[in-house]
Amino acid sequence: MPQGHRESPSTWISDLARDIRYAGRVLRKSPGFACIAILTLALGIGANTAIFSVVNATLLKPLPFRNPEKIAALWQTESAPGSYPLTGEDYLDWKAQNTTFDAMSVYSWPASASASVTAGAPPEGATVVQTEANFFSLLGVNPLIGRTFATGEDQNGGSKVAILSYPFWKSQFAGSNTVLSKSVSLNGEPYTVIGVMPAWYRTPGDAEIWIPLNMAKEHLGTRGTHQWKAIGRIKQGVTLGQARADLRTLSEAYEKQFPEHNRNVTAIVTPMREDLIGDFSTQILVLFAAVGLVLLIACANVANLLLARSTSRQREIGVRSALGAGRGRLVRQLLTESVLLALAGGALGIAFAFAGVATLRVQLADTIPNPNPIVVDWWPLLFTFLICITVGVLFGLAPAVQTSSVNCGQALKSKGTVGASTTRGGHWLRDFLVGSEIALSLALLAGAGLLLRTFTHLRSTDIGVRSDPVLTATVRLPEKQYTTLDQGALFYDRLIDKLQNSPGVKSAAITTELPLLGGSNGYIKIPGQQMESESGPLVEFSSISDGYFRTLEIPLLQGREFNRADFEITAKVIREAMDAKTSDDAKAIAKKYVLPAVINQTMANTFWPQQNAEGKIFESWVQFRVVGIVGDVKQMRLRERVMPQWYAMLSWNLGVPSGPYSIAVQSSGAPPQTMGNTIVSAVQSLDPGLAVFRVRTMPKIVAESMQDTSYEAVLLGAMAVLALVLASVGTYGVMSYVVGQRTNEIGIRMALGARPGEIMGMVTREMFSVVGIGIVVGLVGALAGARVMKDLLVGVAPFDPMTYVGVSLLLALVALAACYVPVRRAMRVDPVRALRYE
User: Fold this and answer.
1) Alpha carbon of 340 to those of 101, 292, 523: distances in Å?
2) In this predicted model, what pLDDT tens digit does every residue of 594-636 receive, in sequence order?
3) Please, are residues 489 and 495 in contact by the beta-carbon 8 Å criterion?
4) Fewest beta carbons less than 10 Å away: which of 13, 396, 514, 576?
């Protein structure tokens, strides 16, 4: 081609087409190599595409709401770290006095609004969420069929209307459009169905039915009662920071105006995505980094395969060079082969990704509360294509440059065998790739090891109760039917009596809060201590029936448990307070009594350190006297520390008899899951209109509380195992290549009397110097990664020596095993035959 002449686009395209056809022929001639390389890349690319689909759905794709960047979750925070629900009066004042929000909307916690639902069949349990009428319009979400709530439907005496979730509509009404205007009974009250939400809609994630929230001030509650969730739409032109400053200014004013209830209470304004995803963003990004490391290991593996294969192609490259092919042309041809391999691996990887996403969608459905579905759509496919091109160049460039640099004369004299010489640069590149595989694998193994140790620690954590023989369930009494404390008390007394006299039941009890499922908390005042009523440590509290500690086998450390007299005195106070004409009258009545309470060991140590807490007095609306101290129970998540906790008699809460309340039944020997029908029969024999829901064993509750940790450990562990396999295969391939090159040297040494052990040591020392460097570099990377993962670890330090020593030894043993087979095979070669080897 004349100097200065440039290739035309048609010439370039024609050359590229020839390169692709030639690359296809070359790969077809080496089917074993092609299959191994394609499968290796497919595993790495498929895993990356699947996890990127999760990243795309949760962190990149806009939320499916109108202008989602303007929607924020609204919380309050108090003296303890963290965010807390809103009080009704504070919310109403925020809504009326703010200057930075177009709209606000309040709604209830899903877990606190379970209902018995009758839709033409026996009653079932459903999760009902009460919302302000503007909730769906604020989000900008339209129903699949029907309409959402209209203005005024959330006022006192508003319409009894309901909106169904897509799964509930499918299960209860077979997806029929005739559902509109039909009636469903919620806790005995009829509600007319006015709409069905789309299948993708999952906010709040547990909701099955939405009904209007009574927005009357007296229904939302007074200041100091934190029980509502809220969202707001920020005005156009207003930043998130300005919205925060606006609500915090209002909160500071309320703190001065209402110091008794609003001390240390301020506003928290969080972007909607951050509120939905929360801590899961760290977990997702850790997994994405893990699959990225797997892909790099796969690339290093294929690059080493190409390096080993390049020796057998030296004669071919020499011939092409002698015929006038320039180095750039050779590099382009070799890169075309590697990119073609990557595209083939990507095509197979997409199939793996679809299977992986289908599995992840099921496993993460209840773990990641995100409204966007996890699917392999155009963005993950585009990501896959770019990954294919990138990794094709990444693993192909160095071998291509190395192969194209052969000496033409030497290559033509060579027979192209594996025994042909390799340059020092080739040795360096080979060792670098093997070391990189070892380092990346160790980083992954260390991360998986730390999560596995966290999982093991959580599994062995004492939650404070005996879980094996206990079955739990939930029931809610309709407010229209059970209007008084005595009606609720009678129902639960009869229920416990029926259960305890049922075959296979050892003990039964009722509680407002089961272990590990969260609870209610607030502040207490200790007479004689300098402590404000709305400051100091937050204290968990639960209402229980007598027999609760016995049923869950919570140890009594000091004092006594509750008895029937405790129930009666507590009920007496509640009755008198409910009959009072004003809240001040109710408080005055309550101050005349001192009610019994049982506290946990942490509360005793927190408020009365180095003292006997039995008999001590504390105040929470009324005064309580400590009559017993029990062992600590994990009331919140397993990851969290035990909080101070006190227990009141169940009659303390029966002034609001609707509940919901949880039933705990200890089996006398039969598997606890078989007690489910016993609970249902007992409840419906007392009231056929009540549903029993959330029937599950305590071990299942424990497993659910570990769900996020278990999926982290499983997914990262799977990536680590895949990395270990790829690293061992890569080490084996390189050792086979190295031993093949040194066959004649090994033959000479054996002919001169070298013993097999000396041969083994000679070859493995060279490889283990590379493996050792890889382990050291991998440890440095693992330590850096552990700092990122520290929030995911519980009961294990980020720099846990046992984990790092263990994974280093494991990787060294795997590398030794990968070295053993090719070296053993080389030692069996006949020395005479080896001396004749070229």
Assistant:
1) 54, 21, 66
2) 899 999 999 999 999 989 999 999 988 788 999 999 999 998 8
3) no
4) 13
Nearest to 673 by CA among 407, 506, 470, 512: 470
Spell out the alpha helix ranges (H) of 313-423. 314-322, 327-363, 378-404, 408-413
User: What's the CA gap between 838 and 834, in Å, rounded?
Assistant: 8
Of 435, 401, 521, 483, the residue nearest 78 (C-alpha): 521
Q: How far is CA 728 from the centre of its chain?
A: 30
**Highest-confidence segment of 74-83, 90-99, 112-121, 538-547:** 90-99
Amino acid at 251: S
**Helix, coil or strand: residue 578:** helix
Q: Which helix (H) or strand (E) holds 127?
A: strand 124-131
**Cα–Cα dist 221/92, whole Å:** 11
Structure tokens at 263: 């001390």
Q: What does the block give as tokens for 777?
A: 């570099």
CA distance to 73, 287, 822, per residue, from 830 (Å): 76, 49, 15
Q: Which distant-in-sequence residues (6+ apart) come within 8 Å of 97 by Cβ?
A: 250
667: three-class secondary structure by DSSP: strand
**Three-class SS of residue 66?**
coil
130 Ramachandran zone, left/alpha/beta (phi>0; psi -120 to 50): beta
Q: What is the mean pLDDT of the chain?
A: 81
Q: Are 146 and 173 in contact (CB under 8 A)?
A: no
Q: Which residue type, as a one-letter code, is found at position 312?
A: S
Query: Which of the listed ranges 22-26, 335-339, 393-397, 828-832 does the model predict with the highest average pLDDT?
Result: 335-339
710 token code pair: 């278990």
Handedness of CA 341, 345, 346, 348 (dihedral sign): positive
Q: In sequence order, what are the residues at sequence separation of 6 or more whose Cβ sits closer than 8 angstroms to the Cβ of residue 676?
A: 471, 473, 695
Other Cβ atoms within 10 Å of 546 Cβ, number: 18
Residue 420's DSSP bridge partners are: none
Write out the two tokens for 662: 């949880």
Whole-angstrom distance, CA of residue 285 vs CA of residue 650:
45
Residue 592 to residue 788: CA distance in whole angstroms: 55
DSSP3 helix / strand / coil % (the chain, rounded to 5): 55, 15, 30
- The span from the CA of 623 to the CA of 618, in Å, is 6
Residues 6+ apart with CB under 8 A from 171: none
End-to-end CA distance of the chain, in Å? 40
Rg (CA), the chain: 35
Whether residue 343 contacts residue 392, with contact meaning beta carbons closer than 8 Å, is answered with: yes
Q: What residue has token string 């009758």?
A: 118
The sign of the torsion formed by the CA atoms of 628, 630, 635, 641 equals positive
DSSP state at residue 652 = G
106's tokens = 């309040």
pTM of the predicted protein model: 0.77
Amino acid at residue number 833: R
Packed helices 583-590 and 564-579: angle between N→C axes, nearest 10 degrees: 150
Which tokens go with 202? Answer: 């999952």
pLDDT of 410 strictly over 60 = no
- Cα separation, 770 vs 762, in Å, equals 14
Rounded CA separation 387/343 (Å): 9
DSSP secondary structure letters along 189-220: EEEEEEEE--TT--SSTT-SEEEE----HHHH
Nearest to 484 by CA among 578, 549, 391, 600: 578
Residues near 374 by beta carbon (within 8 Å), at least 6 away in sequence: 53, 54, 57, 58, 357, 360, 361, 364
Could you read off the pLDDT of 148-157 as tens digits, one per residue? 999 989 887 6
Please give the single-letter amino acid code of residue 13: I
599, 613 contact by CB (below 8 A): yes
Q: What is the pLDDT of residues 572-599, one digit of tens each?
A: 888 887 777 676 777 777 778 889 999 9
According to the model, what pLDDT value does residue 11 have?
Answer: 66
Contact (CB, 8 A) for 329 and 669? no
